[in-house]
Design a protein that fits this description.
By secondary structure, the chain is of the alpha/beta class. Helices cover 44% and strands 15% of the residues. α10 links the parallel β5 and β6 (261-265).
Amino acid sequence: MSGEMFRQVGHDLVDQIASFMDGMGDRPVTLGESPGEIRALLPADRLMPREGCDPSELLSETARMLFEHSLHNGHPRFLGYITSSAAPIGMLGDLLAASVNPNVGAWTLSPVASEIEAQTVRWLAELLGYATDCSGVLVSGGNMANMVCFWAARVAAGGAEMRETGRPEDGRPLVVYASAETHTWIQKAADLSGLGTDNVRWIPTRDDLRMDLEQLRAAMDEDIAADRRPMMVVGTGGSVSTGVVDELREMAAICAERDTWFHVDGAYGGLAAMLPDAPEDLHHLELADSVAVDPHKWLYAPMEAGCALVKSGDHLRNAFSYHPPYYHFGIEATNFVDLGPQNSRGFRALKVWLALQHVGRAGYETMLADDIRLASLLHETAGAHPDLDVFTCCLSISTFRYIPAELRTKVGDPEVEDYLNRLNKEIQARMESQGEAFLSNAVLDGMYVLRGCIVNFRTAEEDVRAIPGIVARTGEEAHRELYVGA
């Protein structure tokens, strides 16, 4: 492709994308199409073309297909999973990164890109109130960021022999502690590290969904008495289901008393630490040995972009490096291959670095605070609706459920509760397929509730105020079809 052709098709594509963004709120969030319908668009069973084709037509048709047949997480009424609207500066950043195509595994292969990533890590730490001389690495997302920290804690607890024999130097089995609100990355990490999921201690939560710290202490002391080694405690810095923040300051003290690595999963909520009125415990992230955050959640970066931060720089190198430190022109160069599991690494830091400068800290403080305010408005508006009951509202997540008027006096009856769970699950499924708005769910003490999560700079008050009415209307329709006298 010549430079002139690239310029022409690129300009045409940018025009299409700009029109798509301008009109995103005018289209359905999703069409709710089946896998068969989507495969027929391609069509999926065709053979790979033998001859090439015109790139302008190819890109135009592909853009049209994506714009018309995707779930649009940038839509102002997408309040589902924690996938934010992609910032336009980040889209351009991905294009720019691909144009140079550096391998950000080795400094010599990516000198400027490596230094931009290192600065991005420092800036993310600064936003969290974390030590800016920490070590860190950009990864694909929250799962991998948490797992990188897990593997660092594993070697820190078990010693260098962990990497050679898979066994701790002192022979004591390693144990990790997490609450029921912890994301499923913990099972993956325990499995893939060889620790085994049986060595995850699931600590119950209290009624406020925060980890029960008395039970944490008891579990850790029981393991110590049985000659097992507490390796890591995971604190939740904003759970994905409700946004709850654990008592991180007290958890850090418990870990310090027992010489145990303290990790905070802040993939969703950690970045709210930049706000003066954030939950108080988020202002103590500096006490953690490691923190995971996700710029593609609440910094509005296009996917993929997660970040693992570890307070002591040696811990990541001890867990991943097979090389001595590398010096270039008399100073140590950062080879990110030594700080994480990847050798070949894309330049995912660029889109985050650009956005941090484009928006600035003050801009992010404004946008995150606005998302939290809108979640509170959703909670208030849902609570005022006669057919909705509200439950939790933490950070930018609100939970609620639909209850038909005729069943209000029977709430708590086991058969009615079972029906309400089925009904609210059906409401969610219908809303997903109808495309007017998109919610997800949480399960609170056995109750299936609807969950609105706002990490979306396009969402406005009018969108939020419309949600309760859409839920109630959909619930009434579903109830008429499903109710058989529960």
